[in-house]
Predict the structure.
Amino acid sequence: MASVTFDGVTKRYGEVTAVDQLDLHVEDGEFMVLLGPSGCGKSTALRMVAGLEDISGGDLSIGDRVVNSVVPAQRDVAMVFQSYALYPHMTVARNIESPLLSKPTRVDDGAEGEVRKLTKAERQARVDEAVRMLGLADYVQRKPGALSGGQRQRVAVARAVVSRPAVFLMDEPLSNLDAKLRAQTRAELIDLHTRLGTTIVYVTHDQIEAMTMADRVAILADGHLQQVGTPREVYEAPANVFVAGFVGNPPMNTARGPAGGGVVQIGASQLPVADAPAGGEVVVGVRPEHLEVTADGPLRARVHHVEWLGHEAQASVDLVGGPADEVGSPLATGASPGRWVVRLAPGLPAPEPGSEIALTPLDGQVHLFDGATGWRLGLDGPPVTGPGGIGGDGAEPDEPVGVGG
Amino acid sequence: MRRELAAARGAKVRDTPRWREAGLALLFLAPSLVVFAVFFYYPFEQLIVRGLYRNNIAGDNLRYVGWGQYRDVLGGDEFREGIGHSVQFLLLTVPVGLLLGIVLAVVANRRLRGIKIFQTIFTSTVATSTAVAGFIFLALLNPSIGLIKEPDLLAQPDTAMIGVALASSWQTLGLSFVIVLAGLQAIPREVEEASMLDGHGPLRRFFRVTLPLISPVLMFLLVILVVNAFQAFAQIDALTKPPGGPDQATETIVFKIFENRTPDRLGDGSIMSVGLFAVTFVVTLAQFLLLERRVHYGE
């Protein structure tokens, strides 16, 4: 096992910078998820750890060793690819054995940390162990073409665990599975991580995977790190408008407006916010579940439509007076400007489309972001917290501010 | 009523009678059957029948001589010599074509700046006509002005086939290259990367991953090259003097067939053609039977 450290790591393709000055430390044994939309640089970052992409700048370390110019096979990492990348002409057993054939492998019976080539009997024992662990005993003599997507995925994981690498790298390994199998495999991967304790760097664009599996999540956008923290931290205290809009489904509602005198003007409404700055423009953020429909709430909105989801209902509403949209914000989320989503309390009658309602944010659940930079007020860069949610190298995110008045 | 009940119980109900399905199938097959019948089956049948007859030099006085003529021609020296030269040509061209095609394609299958230029250059021989290829190699092998002056490959009976094979290999190189390159480019990049992470060196990766994955393409190429080698004629005709010489050393089976085109020998030529078809068929079948198990067709 080993830690992984990105120290100012940059990757450029000609004029395009895919990853820009990435600073990130993955603790030994940690399950770190790199989360972000397509093209944010997360897969490139992972491939740099694997050695499949050259590094344009900075230092990348696995454990204490800088690996910038170390070939993939000597980095002590194993990778599970999105397409699984199994050898189609080999049986499951041969696929799993493959990493043991050519490169030295960590052994149990020798001195601690001893690494050498395995004998045929040792290789067989390793393959058997991986096959048992991943429940592949019935398929060892099959070729990948005769397996289902889920079985192939397990073979790919077995091929990764068989050499007991210091770090597992996983590039969207669940994206080709159906929803039910994905949920099941998520649980299996968490279980595997608990059993093996190996460091995992896991890339996904699926926030459910990130939130359910990660010890910590690193969120990237446009090649830049936005925030590193536990799933709870990034959900409860997003570092900027991008994270607020990316994490959570439906995402956090945001609206832009001038602040002053303890209130933020949003369209025709005045939202009292404790700690609102004395002047300037801010972006206000409130999660859908933190809005209540009340008789005299400060935010007035017109109901557009109501979606019934079984366990709850969600109302899409247009804020009356139409707040300034977010186009032009450097960290715009792309959410439709002025349209908010409200989670309706179960059991209460749903409001009629076209009717006007009043909304009150729950106490302490209004987030304020700088109107110019998009960063949470008090932050000017990505906050980084340690695996336990305490300590870390960056600035601490502010707590959500309370609703005043 | 019973039909509906059967359908409701999930039983299969055949709506179309079998003969009508067969008729429909024939109808769909008809266009290709007609084309094959006109351009392949009928001429081939005529070829076989021709072999049972003998003409005089004027092309008349057709008389039936029977299957004995087949025994005489196929067991004769001329056919054996022609097949021998064709096999010699095949052995000189096919392995070289395959090997060079693979080597060049592997070299050109890199993600390097400007590699497309090399890929185009390597492919260009496909677009070269046999006559042009022949002319180029006549110049290259010319004893006074050529690149290879000594030995004069085309002038010696022992080496003439090598000279012809050189030109032919060069000309088919583009085809081999482009087919193998297509195969290489179809290999998923992630599979190669997995192999790198598994610690396979370049040689191991090539033999354990790349080669099995392009084996269907190599099988196809092998069959094409072998069939082409058996049909070699134009390049030999263009390069050798007299054509098929010296001392008939480069007279392949197609050459022999060509020489038997006069009216009085049309029967012999027909039989040799049928013989060539049979040899090519058997060799191709053998390739499939022997190599099929080593070819990985993937998923």
Chain A has two domains: 4-235, 250-370. Helices of chain A lie at 42-50, 92-102, 120-133, 149-161, 179-196, 207-213, 231-236, 241-246. Chain A touches chain B at residues 50-52, 71-74, 77-79, 81-83, 85-89, 98-99, 101-103, 144-145, 159 (CB under 8 Å).
